[in-house]
Design brief:
Helix content is 19%, strand content 42%. By secondary structure, the chain is an alpha+beta fold. It folds into 2 domains: 162 residues, Protein Transport Mog1p, Chain A (3-Layer(aba) Sandwich), CATH 3.40.1000.10; 150 residues, Protein Transport Mog1p, Chain A. A hairpin with a 5-residue loop joins β14 and β15. The longest helix has 17 residues.
Length: 339
Amino acid sequence: MDIPVPFLTSLTIPADQLRGTLVQVPYVNPGAPEFGFTVNVPANWDISTYPEEAPSPDLSPRLLLHASPDAGRQIELCIFATVLTREVNPVDWADGWLELGGQGIVEARTWKTEYGILIDALTHATDRDVKGVRRFMTIKDGPRLFVIEARIRAEDAGAANFVQNVLLAAIQSFALSRATKERFAEPFDMKALPGRVPLVFPFPSSWEESEIPDAPEGGSGLLLDNAGAGSILVVSAPGCDASEEIEDAALDRIGARIDVKRMDDAYIAVPRSVMNVISRQGIGQQGDAMVTLVTGRIETPDVSAAAILVAPSQDTSPQGFAIARRAFEVLVEEMQPAR
């Protein structure tokens, strides 16, 4: 979208100047104290909090705080919260948030964190005739997901510059009253691949696990299944430089039930991984449904492994895709030799 509003990545109003106009506002929820927080907002804005709201996985995100400098609400700062029941990246969850608000991304940036991939995005209504822009950022703590969003009902660069400064100041000051620092929205267990060089990795305990009968000698294999909405085949073997052979054999196994349409030729190094990991993607067809395929080749000098993700396509099942992608991401990044 060509929207005449810049995407600010840092404060353009001097911090000391902006700080003098802000006041710290506490949000306290007696019925759900784990959603309490403090945040800085402009002191002269009309501020409302909603302590009776109870974020729940069965409801759309609940509005906890609203601030606006005018009765017409031409400019707004809002903080919402929801509860996740499955572990997903906030960047994938945000697709539903955009759809709910009828918004499309103009420009965005993401951060890779232990809590998942967070997103900060400037958006506009998918109906181009609707004036105004929004900007939001996600914050995650265990199953709790917060959205801090600024809204302006005009495409005025000066006003948008100001409200983005307010948003950035709010994000920088936002602090949970009862931060758990839990990484995941659901329980994770340490799974093990036994063998001559055993491997371990964290994985959602909600997935079903079964051993494969014909793993390489000195290694092992597991099939992990998300109740039919995505599966991961992971196989290990002792020694270095065997991951390509393991990946080929795993793809042949998957090919017995899935028509592999395409696999990328180029591999991408996976950053932040404990072992050496390279990954590629592809697409396949299972019955009438298209599926997403992702492979990971994993190695150290003493052991090799490969993991193959079969997930619903993002168009077919956004939730299933998000759950499976996050589980695979944690597996390949954090797999390591057992100590």
